[in-house]
Amino acid sequence: MSIWERKALNFINQTSRWDKDKHISSFLAFSISLVKNLTGADIALQLEFEDEDTAKVKCASPVHLNDIVLNPEPIKKLLYAHGFKTIYWRELPVPKENVFKEVLQALSSAIIIPVNTTPNNSLLVLGWSEPPSFEPDFVECIETIRLRLKEILLQSQQQLYFQRVAIRFAAILHTIPHALVFINNDGFSGWVNQEGATLLGLSGPGEQLPAVLSDAMMQLRNKALNTEEIYKKAVHLFSSPENALTNWTWQLENSTLSVSCLPVTTQQISGRLWIFETLDQ
C-alpha cells in the first residue's frame, strides 16, 4: 500500500469515527483540517456559493481567510469548463486568470475540488507554496477524499434539515391543547407532549420509554370510574394493530376525558397515537 493510499484510508477512518462520536455541526470543519494535514497543504478552505452574487470562504485554515467574499460567476464558469471535476493547478494561473487570487496568494500550486455536482453548493480549495507530486497515487487519494467530502456535506445537510424539522414539529405539538402520547411498536421509543406529560404525571415532555408511558397511562386508567367499560373497549382495540378508537370516554373523579387511539404506520415507524381531550374543566 502506497503512502497516499494510507492517507486516503486514514481520512475515511477518522471521518467515520467522528461521524459516530462528535456533533455534525463541526464535522466539515474537522474534515477540511484533516485534508490539509494529510496533504501537507499550506491552506485549505471551503467556498460556499450563498447566492448568485456571493461565494464566501468558510472553515479556512489559516482562519484569517474566513468570510472573504469572492465573485461566484467566474468560478462557476471555471467549474463548468472542467465538467465539475477536480482541477489540478500544478502552477497557478497568472493573476488575471486566477479566480481565486484573493485566497491563493504567495502559493505555487492548488487543487480545486467540487464536492457537489451543482454549481450552487460548495467546493474545497487546497494550496501549496511548494507543489506536491501530482503522481497517480496522489490524484487517486484526492479523488477518494472528494467522494468522502461529498458524503459528509450531504449527511450534514440532511441531518441539519431533519433537526430543523424535528424542532419545528415538536414546538407545534407541544402547543396543542390536547395531551398527545405516541408509543412505537419497536418497544424502545415513545414521545409525549407537554399536556400529556402533565396529565400522566411525568417529569417532562419529549422522548420517553414505551414502558414508562404505558405504565403512566395504566395508572391513569385505573383511576377512572368506568374502568370496566374502558377495559371492554381496550380488548377490541388491541385485538388488531389496525383498530382505532375515537370519542372513548374515561370518567375521572374531577374530569372527563375523551380519548382517541389511532394507528400510525409509515415506512419508518409503526405505533399508536393517543389523544386525550378534557371535556369539562
Q: Can you tag this structure with a few keywords?
A:
281 residues, alpha+beta, Beta-Lactamase, six-stranded antiparallel β-sheet, 7 helices, 40% helix, PAS domain-containing protein
Number of helices: 7
Tell me, briefly, the overall form: elongated
Assigned CATH architecture of the largest domain: 2-Layer Sandwich
Work out the number of β strands.
12
* Percent of sequence in beta strands: 25-35%
- How would a crystallographer describe the biggest sheet? 6 strands, antiparallel
Radius of gyration: 28 Å
Q: What kind of assembly state do the chains in view correspond to? A: single chain
Mean pLDDT: 87
Q: Give the N-to-C terminal Cα separation.
A: 74 Å
Q: What is the total domain count? A: 2
Instruction: Tell me the helix content.
Output: 40-55%
What pattern of helices and strands is seen along the backbone? HHEEEHEEEHEEHEHHEEE
Give the CATH class of the largest domain: Alpha Beta
Low-confidence stretches: none
Stated plainly, the CATH topology of the largest domain is called: Beta-Lactamase
